[in-house]
UniProtKB/TrEMBL annotation:
Protein name: Erythritol/L-threitol dehydrogenase
Domain Alcohol dehydrogenase-like C-terminal positions: 191-317
Gene3D superfamilies given in the database record: Medium-chain alcohol dehydrogenases, catalytic domain (3.90.180.10), NAD(P)-binding Rossmann-like Domain (3.40.50.720)
Positions of transmembrane segments: none
Pfam families per the UniProt record, alphabetical: ADH_N, ADH_zinc_N
Source organism, top-level taxon: Bacteria
Keyword Oxidoreductase set for record: yes
Keyword entries, A-Z: Oxidoreductase
Domain (Alcohol dehydrogenase-like N-terminal): residue spans on this chain: 30-152
Annotated GO MF terms: oxidoreductase activity
Length: 357
């Protein structure tokens, strides 16, 4: 199939210059590559923080820039195969596919030991010019991309949640929830909702969700929270301690990316408890580090990306075991990207905002 020479794409030239380009070159298809026609691409909180110039992405006086402009943002995307290289096996034109955000090198010690999501070069879709993301009409999947087939009959609004909910699953898996645990999830945005609907399947003793927006707390209840609390309206640390005889929760999952949520969690979790950090922060966070060791002897765990999670999430989104209803709230064309990015901040109560092609 002969593809057009140019396409419409949102391009980040620098942290101060994001621009819609109508004649960006369509990616070339190498012998080991797959080209998809993009169906839909979500806007992630990471995309917003990158757009706003967060040091985590663009570097500072101590750290080099992680992003490599000019690049096309977007890692929550899927589409249908329109071209394949001669070496590609196991796929057909027209098939609907998506991929992990990471594009592993296959050669570093993490890749060779099966821990591909921590690949040392750490190429990802949507932040580096060699692996452009889904805010464009066409995307190239290189040889080492971790691909997954998406059911033809899965609605777009559900399929959009595969990548974020896969990240949510990995985070909850890191928490090692049992039926005896009181679990607190801080943050009920899209990723928090993915954690809630999956954690509900772990059947914890009690699942508590925290968020500053009441409409998100209502959605958290729909998705399986036993209790939904607003830290802006009540002392949630005192409430959780009251519910646990003064001890605190067994597990605290941080999914807001706000420094106050970290301090709150360290105060709320019990001694010998487990703290799981998921979020990307806009800047450094300062805490009393002694709480972790001498104060409570906590297990502090990180959660990064979505290793080995896509198959489970695709299956259980398809059969309804994982809730997805009402999460995708606003769909835009790429021409409306500025309004879409503004909407994706959640200022109007939106969960997931996306582009449809």
């Amino acid at each position: 199939m002969e593809l057009p020479k140019t396409m419409k794409a949102l391009v980040a030239f620098s942290k101060d210059e994001y621009k819609l380009v109508n004649d960006f070159p369509v990616p070339e298809c190498g012998d080991d590559d797959i080209i998809i026609k993009t169906e839909v691409c979500g806007i992630c909180a990471g995309d917003l923080k990158c757009k706003h110039g967060a040091e985590r992405f663009w570097g500072d006086e101590k750290n080099p820039s992680w992003v490599k402009p000019p690049f096309i943002p977007g890692h929550e995307f899927l589409g249908r195969i329109v071209k394949m290289g001669k070496n590609v096996k196991g796929y057909e034109l027209g098939e609907r596919i998506t991929a992990d955000q990471i594009v592993p090198c296959g050669e570093c010690k993490f890749c060779k030991s099966g821990r591909y999501w921590m690949c040392e070069p750490h190429a990802t879709f949507g932040f580096q010019k060699d692996n452009n993301g889904g805010m464009a009409e066409y995307v190239r999947y290189p040889k080492t991309a971790v691909l997954h087939k998406v059911p033809d009959d899965m609605p777009l609004e559900t399929a959009l949640l595969i990548e974020p909910f896969a990240c949510s699953k990995h985070c909850v898996d890191r928490a090692q929830i049992t039926g005896d645990d009181m679990v607190v999830i801080s943050g009920a945005g899209t990723l928090g909702l993915g954690m809630i609907t999956y954690a509900r399947r772990m059947n914890p003793e009690k699942l508590i969700v925290l968020d500053m927006k009441d409409e998100r707390l209502q959605k958290a209840k729909e998705f399986g929270a036993d209790l939904a609390l607003n830290p802006g309206k009540e002392d949630v640390v005192a409430k959780v301690k009251e519910l646990t005889g003064g001890y605190g929760c067994d597990i605290y999952i941080e999914a807001t990316g706000h420094p106050s949520s970290v301090e709150q969690g360290l105060a709320m979790v019990r001694k010998l408890g487990r703290f799981v950090e998921f979020s990307v922060f806009g800047g450094p966070t300062t805490v009393d580090w002694s709480i972790i060791g001498d104060g409570k002897e906590l297990d502090v765990l990180g959660a990064h990306l979505s290793p080995y999670c896509f198959p489970y999430v695709i299956e259980h989104l398809a059969n309804g075991d994982l809730r997805a209803d009402g999460v995708v709230s606003s769909i835009y064309s790429l021409d409306e990207w500025e309004e879409a990015f503004d909407k994706a901040t959640g200022k109007d109560g939106d969960f997931k905002v996306a582009f449809k092609f």
